[in-house]
Amino acid sequence: MPRVIPPDPRLLDRRRRVAHRIRAARLHANLSQQDVIQRTGMDRSAYQDIEAGRSSPLLDNLFRIADAIGVPLSDLVREE
């Protein structure tokens, strides 16, 4: 059985920052989670897990989310 390696705390922190930026951009665009889910075609629980920082989104899903919200991908994943 493969060994499960827990995520590095620094990666978890970066994931939470991306999740926060997604949520902030969505709210700034006056969109509900349901609006983004409909625009992306994503599964509701998958999107909610991404926005809550519980899961790491695939790059394709980040593109979909950025397009649905109307922001450049770089706004969601920039490092400060």
Protein model, in words:
- The protein has 80 residues and is mainly alpha-helical.
- The chain has helices at 9-28, 33-40, 44-51, 59-69, 73-77.
- The N and C termini lie far apart (38 Å).
Summary of the model, kept short:
With 80 residues, the protein is mainly alpha-helical. The chain has helices at 9-28, 33-40, 44-51, 59-69, 73-77.
Assign an overall shape: globular
Q: Give the helix level as a range of percent.
A: 55-70%
Average pLDDT reading: 94
Q: Strand percentage, roughly?
A: under 5%
Main sheet summary: none
Q: Round the Cα radius of gyration to an integer and report it.
A: 13 Å
* Separate helix tally: 5
State the low-pLDDT regions, or none: none
Number of strands: 0
Derived from helix and strand composition plus strand pairing, the structural class reads mainly alpha
End-to-end C-alpha gap: 38 Å
> Helices and strands, in N-to-C order?
HHHHH
Layout of secondary structure:
Elements: H1 9-28, H2 33-40, H3 44-51, H4 59-69, H5 73-77
Defining traits:
80 residues; mainly alpha; 5 helices; 65% helix; globular
